[in-house]
Write a structure and sequence with these properties.
mainly beta, globular, two-stranded antiparallel sheet, single chain
């Protein structure tokens, strides 16, 4: 991540890749069903068409966090591959549509923490008339040409667009109904539409060479991403003394919340924001391998130069944590060099010891301070070391990590963000997998100490929100012929409900049981 996506903050980068076409014909279907109406249907189809290899993955699913909090999603991803001689061309596309009921939760409301401790998990405070909808699509082209042995050229071009319609339902305070003394939850709602468009181009070259006993794989590349974003918002507003605030929805009962519906007749446009940006980068990486005393040693060194430029124009009628009311026009420019390095030693076959370190930076263009001024980019450093072992029927890994993020944003007393923070996460992760006969078992454990180190708004030592100190899981699956039985347990310790919040979310565990029957495969 520090090389190809060097401006991202370290830790937790996940890259999803469309499955490539494979030789021959195949057709697979999979169906799952669960409680609360959850279910998923997926198909994987492929066949050659002339000189082209094709593949189609598609799925439709419904998920439910609990009663009344559900979501539907449809995903389609076709892929085409063409190969001729040393040239390989992949054209992939994807489209996704998601809609779900948004529930803002009730982790923290004023000082009513005693009442909140008794709120059952199945209670929802959302509005079915304020769902969130996500639409996204993209076209991706990748070409690889092996010009001669030891040298390959790669190119990439892509265009993607996504649109998010979201109802920002906020739980503002906990009040008491005077007549009967039942607590009420005060709420506000604003609706925003966010549209993102990305145009990307990249070129890479891979070369293999030797310097004496050392084998090198050198990669150089450059990429540029042009991005456009537009945000529009509507909400009911209350004006007092020339200051506009978001109008309140009808309150909802804490003990028996019932949706009140949303009257959009009084909504007015309150936000018009546009952002234009260019993210350009160039990097070089060398992976060197040498055998010392019969022990393979691999070393990786890389450096990336990134330049990000963004212009933003925001007009808002009411204050939000992201921007003050009025007109904010700003330009953010950031240039950074982010190095990374790694070392892998294989003392015996199937065992690898490793150590790595990387730096990153991430420009902040979606928020401004209370004066409408842009923030500096956040910067991060990650150091990780551990081992990986793999045999014919078992594998295990152990890792220790340390991550630090500087210039983090935290909310000040007036609701706007301040850039004064340093946050740190360190811990240990372990994972094991084994397969005996038709039984596969997995187990994992993670200890994470995530806390604030320095900040003007949050005391040092405050735990970062939603980060349990202990998390563990076990999973097993047994297959016999076409029948499969599987089950697992995920558990985590307590965690805070917000940065500096007095509300602690309790420890919990989830049990998952299932069975599958393979009807056929071709």
């Amino acid at each position: 991540a520090s090389v190809l996506y060097g401006r991202l903050e370290p830790g937790g980068v996940v890259n999803f890749i469309t499955e490539k076409p494979r030789a021959g014909r195949h057709a697979e279907a999979e169906a799952d069903a669960g409680t609360l109406g959850t279910g998923r249907l997926a198909v994987d189809l492929g066949a050659p068409i002339g000189a082209l290899a094709t593949r189609l993955n598609a799925s439709a699913q419904r998920t439910a966090l609990r009663e009344g909090v559900t979501g539907d999603a449809v995903f389609v991803a076709p892929a085409v591959r063409w190969a001729r001689g040393r040239l390989l061309l992949d054209v992939d596309a994807e489209a996704e549509a998601t809609e779900f009921t948004f529930d803002p939760g009730i982790a923290a409301l004023g000082d009513g923490t005693d009442a909140l401790d008794a709120v059952p998990d199945g209670r929802s405070f959302g509005e079915p008339d304020a769902p969130r909808r996500w639409r996204a699509g993209g076209l991706f082209i990748n070409a690889t040409h092996a010009t001669r042995p030891g040298l390959a050229l790669r190119g990439h071009a892509s265009l993607s667009r996504s649109v998010l319609d979201r109802g920002l339902l906020a739980l503002d305070s906990l009040t008491t109904r005077a007549a009967v003394g039942a607590p009420l939850v005060a709420r506000t709602l604003r609706n925003e539409r966010l549209a993102f468009t990305y145009l990307k181009g990249a070129a890479f070259a891979d070369a293999r060479a030797r310097t004496g006993p050392v084998a090198h794989t050198l990669t150089v590349g450059a990429e540029a991403i042009r991005a456009w974003a537009q945000a529009d918002g509507e909400a009911g507003l209350s004006v007092d003394g020339g200051t506009a605030t978001f109008a309140a929805l009808p309150p909802i009962a804490l003990d028996a919340p019932t949706p009140t519906g949303v009257d959009r007749a009084a909504d007015v446009p309150y936000l018009d924001a546009s952002v234009r940006g260019l993210d350009a980068g160039a990097f070089v990486q060398d992976r060197a391998t040498v055998v010392l005393g019969g022990v393979p040693v691999h070393a990786v060194g890389a450096v990336r130069l990134s330049h990000v430029r963004a212009q933003a124009t925001i007009f808002a009628l009411a204050d939000t944590p992201d921007a003050p009311a009025g007109l904010s026009e700003r330009e953010a420019v950031a240039t950074a060099v982010t190095p990374s390095a790694g070392l892998v030693v294989e003392p015996v076959s199937g065992l690898a010891l490793y150590l790595s370190s990387g730096a990153s930076f991430n420009p902040v263009v979606n928020r401004v301070d209370r004066d409408g001024q842009p923030f500096l980019p956040t910067r991060g450093v990650q150091v990780e070391g551990g081992l990986k072992a793999e045999g014919a029927a078992a594998a295990a890994s152990l890792a220790s990590f340390w991550i630090q993020k500087d210039d983090a944003l935290t909310a000040g007393p007036d609701g706007f963000f301040d850039q004064t923070g340093r946050q740190r996460s360190r811990g240990v992760e372990a994972e094991a997998r084994a397969q005996v006969g038709g039984v596969t078992a997995l187990a994992s454990y993670a200890y994470t100490d995530a806390e604030v180190v320095e900040d003007d708004n949050v005391p040092p030592g405050t735990r970062l929100p939603f980060a349990p100190r202990h998390a563990a899981s076990v999973w097993a699956e047994a297959t016999r012929g076409p029948l499969a039985l599987r089950g697992g347990l995920w558990a985590q310790s307590d965690r805070t409900g917000g940065l500096g919040s007095s509300v602690t979310l309790p420890a919990d565990a989830v049990v998952d049981l299932g069975a599958g029957l393979a009807l056929g495969r071709g």
